[in-house]
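If I may wish for something, please walk me through the protein I am sending here so I can picture the backbone:
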Amino acid sequence: MTNKRLHVEKYFDGENFIENKVFTLSKGKIVAIDNDISKSDEVLSGLVVPGFIDLQVNGGGGVLLNSTPTAAGIEKIMQAHIKFGTTAMLPTLITDKVSVMQQAADAIAEAINNNVMGIIGIHFEGPHLSVTKKGAHSEEYIRKITDEEWQVLSRKDIGQILVTLAPENVSVEDIKRMVDMGIKVCLGHTNADFETAQKAIDAGADGFTHLFNAMSPLQGREPGVVGSALLNDKASCGLIVDGHHVDFASCLLAIKTKPQGKLFLVTDAMPPLGTDDKEFMLFDRKVILDGGKLTSPTGGLAGSVLDMATAIKNTHQILNIELGEAINMATAYPANYVNQQSIRGRLFEGCQADFVVLSNSLSVEQTWISGKQVY
């Protein structure tokens, strides 16, 4: 394979903003970075940044993973997000029948085996959740863990597995078992008290799904799951910065409280992302898009149409977070969380050549995955 040399006028490598370097790409990786701009095949103007990594993606491009648990469906979701700079994701299955979990796992395995771009594993958001904090999840499918779920979770052909669970409904022993299997365990859709959340953290859970949403709140005499999330420095939290899920002041409180590197941006995106659709079916319920907000018939939030580029833009422009830090929240920090930091989330020699070219307004102009321009 012929090496490709790209003159990058300006880029952020995960640590610094750097100008006028040449990336040599080979076999999907950045194999060298040098100063000889006279010898390049192509010039990348704009700001080049690491590709975005989204660990919570329910759908996009008109497809919901639960409704279309196939490799083709996963590829269509990925294609919708590529336009907004996402180069790696965990397609996310919300609470459903075990047969759908099995189909989704088969589809992820097929996608990985067929080298579908950007698919690095799967996020099972449920089904072992709190009915009280179920949000848009279907109560009829919320259940205790059984051998059938363990068979899905034990698979070694579906990349990184992330599980969102309510610790009041899953034993400490089962959380330890998941962690020992290499599964990332996040607390979410939970009404647990602080003590129960802490026991889950002690058992190896190290994440919180869409911080502040669908979890017991921080109160003076009961810190709840939010208190546990903010207090545990080693735990990471996903954050939906769309202005609908979390007030911007609460986002700032989390950024101020958590150690650097322990908050990462997620979209929680649903099928309308990347389309002109204004509604979709979530099981037997119609979800309506109005004013950038997705709501179910009960009026509750049902995912988002947020894309990662907009999440970064909101974090930088509305929350006034320094641009490099906002980018890291969508790149390096999620990569760290799923143990991909040696190959993704940064632009150094030896890293995968996943990157995005941004305009001055932080819109996505190009997306590259494994050294190939895909948008």
Q: What stands out?
A: The chain has ten helices and 20 strands. Residues 52-337 form a domain with the TIM Barrel fold (CATH 3.20.20.140).
